[in-house]
Amino acid sequence: MKTVACDENLSGDQHPRVAFSAVRGTTYSIQFGIFQNDGTIGFKFEPASTITGLVRASSHRPIPGICADVYDVNNPPVPGTYTAIASTTTDRRGSYTFGDLVDGSYRVHYQDCNQSPTYAPQWYRGRLSFSAADPVVVPFGSVVHADVTLAKGGSITGTIRDSSSGQPLMDVCAEAYDNTDTLEASTLSDSQGAYKLTPLAQTGFKVKFSYCATSSDIHFTQWFNNKADFASATVVPVIAGSTSSGINASLVPATGSGSISGVVTNLKNEPIPTVCVSAFEPGEVEVAGAITGSDGSYNISGLGTGTFKVEFQACASSPYGATQWYDNKPDFDTATPIAVTDGFDTPGIDASLDVPWSGTSHITGTITGSFGSPIQGICVTAYVSADQSVGGDFSRSDGTYHIDGLGTDTFKLQFTDCSGLGYQTQWYNGKADFSSGDPISVTDGIDTTGIDVTMTM
Known about the structure:
Strands 4, 5, 7, 8 and 9 form a five-stranded antiparallel sheet that branches. This protein has strands spanning 34-35, 41-42, 49-57, 66-72, 86-89, 95-101, 104-112, 122-123, 136-138, 143-145, 148-150, 154-162, 172-177, 183-188, 194-200, 204-211, 222-223, 236-237, 243-244, 249-251, 258-266, 276-281, 285-291, 297-303, 306-313, 323-325, 338-340, 345-346, 351-353, 361-368, 378-385, 388-394, 400-406, 409-417, 426-427, 440-442, 453-454. With 457 residues, it is mainly β. The protein has four domains: 49-150, Immunoglobulins (Immunoglobulin-like); 154-251, Immunoglobulin-like, CATH 2.60.40; 258-353, Sandwich (Immunoglobulin-like); 361-454, Sandwich (Immunoglobulin-like). The protein is globular and about 65 Å long.
């Protein structure tokens, strides 16, 4: 037997990691233990600890379909990276459990993952940020209860128009940022230019409007209330359960005829669709943007003569996101400037993002009950490993679901009752957990259909 990786964990890290390049189709044996003087390994397993709790509304009604994520107390979320120790979803009784934890302190985040989310996200217990969250202290081998009450979220609404014609603008990205410049909610304006950001916590937000359509009718980015950047933007107060209306914007159409173009791929050199690409002027002022197509290409038009910096963010193609500045730089300050001349395209501004997969394929199927009737409101989640979900959907009135944007890989599907109907959680095909779930192989460009399940009470 050949040893391919080893971690002696001399620092006593509670969550040691061993990394190596795995070969598809190869079986690996993993040993855990304490090295003895005679060269053997002595095993010493300690009882795990658990965090469990109930998530309720202010009326004390249990809330199913709430996503809960647990973090090490000293390891906050990092944009573009999955840093949670574990994730789960509340069942029809509003219950959740994190098992197999070592003793220590943790912070837990809750977010409404139902199809029409109602409740505002929060950290334990009723806090708005990781740093403010109450730590959940878990002693050795114990079960700690962490119950929470979620408040109904508030909303921000408004209408987005062209500043010259007054016509409504469709497919404008409206985004709400908290006071730390962290994105908390986003949506697209409809054909009437109307948008709604919800559910939001009871605090203040700054709202950004950026043109996401792929047509040549480009408009410059703007922050409320007609401000150039986050720092100068007007704060919009939000009250739980209420709507802050009239947060409107009039976007200025771009008049330049220069452009920046390129292709965005993942580390396997596969094109990534629906990546948000934004151009910034000096001072980190965002002026225009585009979204990559199915072939990973983009074109930011409407630019005049000047110097710009470009940011790439996998805002819709991966649950972990991924952010990079050109040319493979971490932030605006270090990004490589790009010179643009009015009337000319500046091509070859490419990026390679570290996302787990990308693609244009779907997994589809139908969910029924024991008597063959379709079931609405079942959460379907695709996983590439036991703790990494990569997409999902909800079953519709006819019982159908479709998970979009999958590339070549092997996935396992979990089916959870998110509507409180009383159905038991299962993995495809009628299995109890991730390890026993039937794998589903997907090839990019080819839809995988007929992944049907029958739910039981």
